[in-house]
Amino acid sequence: MSPIGRVFIVLNLVLASGFVFTGGQLLQNQHKYKQLLGEEKSAREADAKASASEIAALEVERNKFDNSSNSFQQLAEQRKLALDRANDDNLRLGKLTSSQAADLKKAVTLQETANTNAQSAFETAQKAYDSSIAAIGARDEAVNAQNAAQGENRNLKNEIAGLNETIGAKDLKIAALDRDNQEQKLLVAAATANGFIHSMAAPDLAGTVTNASGRLCTIAINGNPGNVDIQSVISRMPFRFAIFDDNGFKAEAVATKYEPSAKAVLCKVMFTKGSATIRTGDKASTKP
What we know:
Elements: H1 3-42, H2 48-94, H3 101-193, E1 206-213, E2 216-223, H4 230-236, E3 240-245, E4 248-259, E5 264-272, E6 283-285
């Protein structure tokens, strides 16, 4: 075998070993990256500081994959140059004398084997590179999800701050209402001490007795100039009706319930003048 043939054989074996070694390194880096990516996905709900650290680590890994990609491209260019040189050498070897034909045939055979090995190594490296690109894409999706989570966290903080402001404003209103309530209680207490009774604060209502039985009666409301919520007033402060006819006052009754459908107040008779009897058609008023 000629010295040139031996040189090419050694060169091709070195290149093939380099491709195989580089492919193994890439597969190892790819496995490591997938493991880091899985850990990063499982820790998405970690605090912002931990997420930032994971992102920084992934950026370093990405730079490593980018550097590996550049190395693959350089190796591919070198392989192409080597193949071109080998083809040129094959053309030159074809012009050698017949005494070198056997050596040339062996060299060609070895060269073809080396080319096959180099192509296999290149395909393996290409697959590893494609896998690394896919892993980088998955990493980018994880980063985007983390950024979205941080955005949602900021929105929640803003909403909480707004709610706190609203609560603060409501607390101030409640405090003001409490002060007003205390003042009103003082005013009521002072008025009561001076002879005020709750029945004097009754709404201005007028009506007609539609039913009377024993100590109970029903008064149909036909006058409500203030358009007050009668049931609400009854529930807070039951008021009294004065019942009378053309001959004058007959009885006094306390409102107990209001029936909106009939616009009628159910009352309990508290006082009757003498032997007076409440009858259907008698008049009733809270302001006699």
